[in-house]
Amino acid sequence: MIKFLDLNSQYASIRPDVDAAIASVIEKAAFIGGPFVNDFEQAFAGWLGVDHCIGVANGTDAIEIAIEALDLPIGSEIIVPANTFISSSEAVTRGGHSVVFADVSTDCYTLTPETVRAVLTPRTKALMAVHLYGHPCDMGGLREIALEHGLKIIEDCAQAHGAEVGGIKVGTIGDISTFSFYPGKNLGAYGDAGAVTTGDPALATRVRKIANHGRVAKYVHEFEGRNSRLDGLQAAILSVKLPYLQSWTDHRIAVADRYIAGLDGIDGLTLPVRQSWAKQVYHLFVVRTTQRDALAEHLARNHIQTGIHYPVALPKLPAYAAHTQQTAEFFACRSDQELLSLPIGEHLTFTDVDTVIRSVRDFFG
Ligand SMILES: *Cc1c(COP(=O)(O)O)cnc(C)c1O
Q: Phi/psi at 322 (nearest 5 deg)?
């Protein structure tokens, strides 16, 4: 069986360190806040090259809190790509703002300056650059639009730990950025975890207060916030894993390169494109074919697991049945029938990759 994701094999490779870290949190009873959370926040900020990292409970909270921290006028329009996980848009609505969907590019599946310009209005106040599948958005182009129109940029880096634009890591480029450490992400905890990063000290302070009941000192609450904490156990586990992230990412890239070389030139199969300015960290390796379901079944028969990200573009979901863009003529709203995610991750051997390549080639004859 070639697994889509294999968290057990990763644990087996770092087990003594993870077990020791967990034991140490319990011995110190540092479950909430404390040294393990501080250490991880500092280590992750250092790894990214950003001044401030605030651990929160999960990646969805991170987006909600980031939006709240920006303090936009209620009812602002925030541009979100039509192809992403629902967290990206959910957070906009929950923050009292309006979701405006924009299409994604046909090669990298992310927002582009053109797709953003197409949906700009005078009420647009922010855009959410989701670095989907690990490929960064064209941040240079998006920043130009943001400057021109006075927009804030939120980077959703849930799938893009370590991705770069022109040598600069995502999560350091926009006004404020969010990460998820959901177990299956490129850097994953053993439960829910997330973080907000920013170079702006005032925003960082606001994020910390929002995530901790608007608190400035014990039982002194400047405003109503919420409870969204990264816990000590998750922080300690993430600190153990962080030093491996570079080599795990390198392996993902090597797997992707092997797929690209091995699957090149198949009629009817579109491979993901990596822009020259981008470091793509391949959270997912997504191919496109009109025979998607048949290919997935063929691979399943050959004991190869696949995934679909995402089977229904956001505007078409029941959650957006009343949205004015529900029937938007987006590429994202057609390609959801054609996308297929092949296995990728540090658990895959090159022999596995070659087996997948052979099986895909068999299918296309
Ligand atoms: C995983 C993910 C999230 C949400 O993260 P959680 O930690 O599961 O809340 C948000 N945006 C994108 C693009 C994601 O992939």
A: -100, 5
User: Which pTM was predicted?
Assistant: 0.98
* 267 CA to centre of ligand 1 in angstroms: 33
pLDDT at 299: 98
- 166: CB partners within 8 A, 6+ apart: 140, 277
Mean pLDDT value across the chain: 97
300: CA distance to ligand 1 center in Å? Answer: 26
178 in contact with ligand 1, CB cutoff 6 A: no
DSSP code, position 57: S
For 217, the 3-state DSSP assignment is strand
Query: Probe ligand 1: pick from 83, 109, 137, 159, max atoms within 8 Å of CB?
Result: 159
Residue 112's region, left for phi above 0, alpha for psi from -120 to 50, else beta, is beta
| Dihedral sign for Cα atoms in the order 246, 252, 254, 257 | negative
What lies within 8 Å, CB to CB, of 235 at 6+ separation is: 36, 37, 39, 40, 41, 55, 193
Q: Which residues pair with 102 in a beta bridge?
A: 81
Is 182 touching ligand 1 by the criterion CB < 6 Å?
A: yes
DSSP helix/strand/coil, 33:
coil
CB 158 within 8 A of CB 134: no
Q: What is the pLDDT of residue 158?
A: 98
Radius of gyration over every alpha carbon of the chain, rounded to an integer in angstroms: 20
- ∠ CA 215-199-171, nearest 5°, is 105
Q: Write out the H or E segment, with its range, that includes residue 295.
A: helix 292-301
pLDDT of residue 156: 98
pLDDT tens, position by position, 231-241: 999 999 999 99
Check pocket membership of 186 for ligand 1, CB cut-off 6 A: no
Give me ligand 1 centre to Cα 361, in Å.
32
Is the Cβ atom of 84 under 6 angstroms away from ligand 1?
yes
